[in-house]
Amino acid sequence: MNTSTEPGHGHSPAAWAAVIVMLASLSVATVAFFLGVWWLVVASGVATLMGWGLGFVLSAAGWGVNGPKYLPKEHS
Predict the structure, then answer these.
(1) How far lies 28's CA from each of 15, 37, 41, 65, in Å?
(2) Grouped pLDDT means (10 residues each) for the chain, 76 residues
(3) Disulfide-capable partner of 48 in 6, 12, 19, 25 (CB 3.0 to 4.6 Å)?
(4) What angle do CA 10, 63, 58 make, to 5 degrees?
């Protein structure tokens, strides 16, 4: 398979870091919402947006699919 046309499907450190941060913060937000801790719901929402931004920052720093620091793994 020609790797230059492969979109990557999000298998990069930038994508993984962003998704992990967003999943963790949304999990905390869900529990906080259930318990009625509104300041934590809002803080988790902000953390979710920061996780989204983290993906862009890491991608711009070279850890994205087309970045120089990313080494794609061969698919079997």
Answers:
(1) 20, 10, 8, 29
(2) 57 91 98 98 97 94 83 68
(3) 25
(4) 95
Predicted TM-score (pTM) above 0.90? no
Task: Show me where the domains of the chain are located.
Answer: 13-63
Token pair listed for 10: 């999000």
Which amino acid, residue 55? G
- Return the residue matching tokens 């529990």: 31
Burial of 3 (0-12, 13-18, 19+ CB in 10 A): exposed
What's the alpha-carbon Rg for the chain, to the nearest Å?
A: 16
